[in-house]
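Lab manual, section 2.4: Encoding a predicted structure.

Procedure: take the sequence of the chain (130 residues), apply the prediction step described in section 2.3, and record the output as structure tokens. A sample record is shown.
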Amino acid sequence: MYTKRPPDRKLLGYLAPYDPHVSRLALALRDLVLEEAPTAKESFSKGYAVGIAFSFTGKPIKDGFCHVVTYDNHVNLGFNQGAMLPDPDRVLAGNGKSIRHVTIHSEEDLNRPFFRRYVRAAIERAPGAP
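Recorded output:
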């Protein structure tokens, strides 16, 4: 059973300048990922956007399986090996070599069951996954 992990204070500080709706979306996506991967390690950064990366090894660049990126008006749930994931719902966007993402504008979007399916598929491919 998943025990909710509170967000780091530094992450909350990074999200503070955003519209509360967008910050809530980012934190809700974070919770969704951690519910599916409770042993995942998370790291976060602030640049032109706030990013939360997830891996099982603590190496989010090399071994990350997904990430949440917060923009002014939306949040993306990205998959590091998204180009290799099955996409039966045809929701993965991007045309790079490996990364794909889904854009989320509202909390209602998070209730769509495919989010968890895609996260689980990404976990299966992740180095160090339980």
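Check your result against the sample. The radius of gyration is 14 Å.
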